[in-house]
Amino acid sequence: MTDVVKRGAAPRCGSLSSLRSMTPPRIFLDHAAGAPTPPEIVELMAELQRAGIGNPNGGHTEARRARAVLDDARASLAEDFDVEPRQITFTSTASEALALGLNSVMSSTRSLVTTAGEHRGSRALAVRHAATGGTVELLALDRQGFMQERALRGDLSGAVGLFALASGEVGTIQPWGSFAAAWRSSGGGALVVDAVQAAFHRRLHAQEIGAAHLVVGSAKVGGPFGIAALISGPEAKVEPLIVGGGQERGRRGGTEAVVLAAGFAAAHRAHCLQVDRTRQHLAALASAFDDALGPPASLGLVPTGAPFMSEARLAGHRSYAVDWALGDDLVAALDHAGIAASTGSACISGSREPSEALRAMGHTEDESRGGLRLTFGRPTTLEEARGAAVIVRSVLERVHTGVPA
Questions:
Q1: Could you tell me the residue range of the domain that residue 29 belongs to?
Q2: In this structure, which of 39, 243, 346, 374 has its CB flanked by the most CB atoms within 10 Å?
Q3: Does residue 69 lie in a domain region?
């Protein structure tokens, strides 16, 4: 019998094994968009599914069991962020949580203050507010992506702020304490804060941030996609975007995703227990990558965001800009070589439009179209970090000089 697989026929097991052995190993460097879910979290969710999860809003035994699982997940997250369980509203995504938080404090007569460096979900909310006749003010960013406190005027009474604690695109961590103080002294009102990236970098205490509504996500900490949470202040009201049968204390209609909530809570608790060790590991990976890559300028790369290895930068986060290629083309070339990378925010990947964040930070339009982000995670090894640098250098040199693969 021949080993040749006919077109349209299913390949033999031996052939599949041969193909796998010929496939180069891949290195995943897009952890800022979502980390792989650990096996123990996958097994937890699988066991819940196998046991059968009822609608947590019913009156039978299965429903009560589902309600207990959901309540436990909410209580676990509340403990992690030092809040009461009633302050947590589960949503499907961080973008939905941002919209829910903003909807709860915003009105057409209020001014919205934000920056061009926010997550695309936040910027879309600002655009929508402006389209309905509302006032939107964009705070300036400096070259490293820091918000300019001096741009805050003294007449912000009633204004709503929509800001991120840290940028997933360029890795800059905002000096939140001083900024929040400047916001309050300028008369600023309610704050809706995106903490998705920051909550991975360090453990957060929600009350210390002083936000009316704080947004956290699941996928970044190794939890499942499809669930996030809005953490509201003790006295903050939540005005639903989705009305229904009174679920989530009337804040969000629709049957709750019990299994996803359990996975989210378990992943976040596990992350909290190792967050300091994770940050040290990511810093070591980034340092090894830097050493193996060599000077970015020699590859035509312009580092973006806060200085690498500084306290003001997300650990394990590397971002660059080039003016000689499109970011999407670099991502495609790296993907072909076995590296999973991104152009920046996962919400702008695949777009040929210039990055609003990079433009606001003073980069040229060409550089803003050539963003490249590489982010390490807990599963990444030092060998992979060094190997990735060698591959990245080779690919960029080839693309820059026009040498075919």
A1: 24-38+272-401
A2: 374
A3: yes
Report the residue count for the chain. Answer: 405
CATH number at residue 241: 3.40.640.10
| pLDDT bracket for residue 402 (50, 70, 90) | confident
Residues 343 and 240 in one domain: no
Question: What mean pLDDT comes out for the span 72-92?
Answer: 98
In a domain, 184, yes or no: yes
15: in domain: no
CA terminus-to-terminus distance, the chain: 36
Q: Are residues 300 and 209 in the same domain?
A: no
- Environment class of 357 (CB within 10 Å of its CB; exposed 0-12, middle 13-18, buried 19+): buried
- Asked if 199 and 315 sit in the same domain, the reply is no
Res 155: pLDDT: 77
- Residue with tokens 């050539």, as numbered in its chain: 370
Give pairs for 132-137: CB < 8 Å, separation 24+.
Answer: 132/108, 133/108, 134/106, 134/108, 134/110, 135/110, 135/111, 136/111, 136/112, 137/111, 137/112, 137/113
pTM of the model: 0.91
What tens digit of pLDDT does each residue of 168-222 get?
999 999 999 999 999 999 999 999 999 999 999 999 999 999 999 999 999 999 9
pLDDT of residue 19: 42
Calculate mean pLDDT across residues 79-103. 98
248 and 333 part of one domain: no
**Considering 222, 247, 269, which residue would you say is the last residue of a domain?**
269
